[in-house]
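Support request from a user on the community tier.

User writes: "When I paste my structure tokens into the form, the page sometimes reloads and wipes my input. The last time it worked, I copied everything first. Here is what I submitted, just in case something in the input itself triggers the reload:"
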């Protein structure tokens, strides 16, 4: 009997462990914007559909915060989360995180999670953005690049900055990812 129990545990444990394994794209701890609090990405976002966006406060695309917040508000009950990562890679982000947080919260009413200022391109890119770029084949070319990540942690599609949160095809891709 002991041999049977041992054999079952050897056979079935890897199946259960892999089913609960954290996807590579979420194996990070990230600091919240203008805070010392960190977030375990796996614990918070595993099994959710994500839209990961590199943002900037002083960019022509900055008004997209409003549309991104509207998407988040509308779909968060369906386990959809927008994750914002301010970046100064394109020289359009404040040097002071408190100013970035103020713009997001007061000007655009952002309630979706925002994280510390992050490098998103090149050899010094944050490991999260290196993974997103590798999976999608697209490195951010500007602010407000968007990566749609399914519930399994796979990049479904990447979107250029010009893709607006209200664009029909973009919205359909999100709805399709939520339906998986």
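"...and here is what came back when it finally went through:"
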């Amino acid at each position: 009997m002991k041999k049977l129990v041992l054999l079952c545990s050897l056979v079935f444990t890897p199946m259960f462990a892999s089913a609960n394994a954290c996807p590579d794209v979420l194996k990070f701890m990230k600091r919240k914007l203008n805070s010392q609090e960190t977030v375990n990405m796996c614990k918070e976002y595993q099994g959710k559909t994500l839209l990961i966006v590199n943002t900037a406060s002083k960019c022509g695309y900055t008004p997209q915060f409003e549309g991104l917040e509207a998407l988040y508000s509308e779909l968060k009950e369906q386990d959809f989360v927008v994750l914002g990562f301010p970046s100064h890679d394109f020289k359009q982000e404040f040097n002071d995180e408190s100013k970035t947080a103020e713009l997001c919260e007061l000007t655009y009413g952002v309630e979706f999670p925002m994280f510390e200022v992050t490098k998103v391109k090149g050899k010094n890119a944050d490991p999260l953005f290196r993974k997103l770029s590798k999976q999608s084949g697209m490195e951010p070319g500007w602010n407000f690049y968007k990566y749609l990540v399914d519930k399994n942690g796979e990049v479904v599609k990447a979107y250029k900055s010009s893709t607006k949160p209200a664009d029909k095809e973009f919205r359909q891709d999100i709805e399709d990812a939520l339906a998986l």
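Agent notes: The reload is a front-end session timeout and is unrelated to the input. The longest strand covers residues 49-55. The mean pLDDT is 91. Escalated to web team.
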